[in-house]
Write a structure and sequence with these properties.
Helices cover 41% and strands 22% of the residues. By secondary structure, it is an alpha/beta fold. The protein has a single domain, classed as Ribosomal Protein L15, Chain: K, domain 2. Strands 1, 2, 3, 4 and 5 form a five-stranded parallel sheet that branches. Helix 2 runs antiparallel to helix 3. The radius of gyration is 14 Å and the shape is globular.
Length: 123
């Protein structure tokens, strides 16, 4: 995996929140955060957009899933999971909460679990 040059990214990306997150995670040595930085650094056309149906298929009840992109509200979810993503659609956030799960930002997951233990990345 290539290292991310933050100066080069600033010329391509305008979202200051995204650049700040990439910069913060880029300082970490853990492989999970390096993978997240790599995925977040991709062009917008290549960023992950994951539906709830895919989360339902791959998640274990009580597990934690990280989506380096956007979670969309298509499908249904019945498992109590914690989903961390850069952004959520309104429907996805509501359906995750209705199932008893939590929708959190990648930054808050990083602060709560800096080692990235037991986190599944979906791209």
């Amino acid at each position: 995996m290539k290292t991310t040059n933050i100066k080069r990214l600033k010329s391509r990306k305008e979202n200051s929140t995204l650049l700040s997150l990439i910069d913060t995670l880029g300082r970490e040595k853990k492989p999970i955060w390096k993978k997240v930085v790599y995925e977040l650094s991709k062009p917008r056309r290549q960023t992950a957009e994951i539906n709830l149906s895919k989360l339902e298929a791959h998640a274990a009840d009580g597990g934690t899933i990280l989506v380096p992109g956007k979670v969309l509200g298509s499908g249904s979810i019945s498992k109590r999971i914690t989903v961390a993503a850069f952004s959520f659609s309104g429907t996805a956030r509501k359906l995750i909460a209705d199932a008893g799960g939590r929708a959190v930002s990648i930054e808050s997951l990083y602060k709560a679990n800096p080692r990235g233990k037991d986190v599944l990345i979906l791209t």
